[in-house]
Amino acid sequence: MPSHHAPVTGSVPASAWPGLAVGESLTGGHRNPVHAGLVGANPVVIRHSRRPEASLQWEFDLLEHLRDRGVLVPEIVPTADGLRHLDGWHVQLRIEGRHPDGSARDAAALESALRAVHSSTAGWPQRPGSRSARELLTTDRGADVDLGAVPDDLRRTIRAAWAAINPQAACVIHGDAGGGNALLLPDGRCALLDWDESRLDDPRFDLTDPSDPRQARAALAWEIATCWVAEPDYARSLVPQFLD
Question: Residues with Cβ < 8 Å from 9, sequence gap 6 or more?
């Protein structure tokens, strides 16, 4: 997916983390800048988020909750003052692994990891400022989505695609669990990275049933809606496929 935002101005406030050495920029940070680094001998990943404070703290609380339940997710390295981020910059211990290769085995490991997330977050609160697809049937704004900016006919079609799937109980979904945000460990388990797009929603936005075209259509409707303002060219390129 193309980048959603303009580059961040300013550099990593490395002095806030004792012993932090900032390395090269990493590819794959679609929404946010990402750097490699070291804290002492420990490889880390340095990320930046533009999410509001409450939304970012929700994400960090979620990661702690999932780690406590055995889900492989990044571990936050606090600053010297015990903060989990500084002006949106945060440091995570690097997880070593390989990206899924498209095999049935890797797909099963990714599915297992996502199902563990879903089962561990029933009743979890909605991310501040975010809205599920079901909530967006009756309101226009939620995090990156602004349906008020979408043409009327397309907005109605997007909502119809979401309404066409019978809702399942909401839980936290990763929201962008493609191959770049998953790592397979040598023991076969799957780690999930980059939770910037996570929210409370229908779990089928993470695990779409390929035998049900309505689910794929609902997922494509979300991609158009969430990118319409930030990535207009990309979002509009998806519309012919969606309306076909």
Answer: none
Name which of 94, 58, 97, 101 is nearest 76 in CA terms.
94
Residue 7 has pLDDT above 60, yes or no: no
201 and 137 Cβ atoms separated by less than 8 Å: no
The predicted-structure confidence for 211-234, as pLDDT tens digits, reads as follows 999 999 999 999 999 999 999 999
In the chain, what are the helix, strand and coil shares in percent, each to the nearest 5? 35, 20, 45
pLDDT in tens, 116-144: 999 999 999 999 999 999 999 999 999 99
Domains of the chain: 14-93 (3.30.200.20)
Task: Give the contacts of 63 (CB within 8 A, at least 6 positions apart).
Answer: 73, 74, 75, 76, 195
Other CB atoms closer than 10 Å to residue 32's CB: what's the count?
18
> What is the distance between the alpha carbons of residues 201 and 118, in angstroms, rounded to a whole number?
10
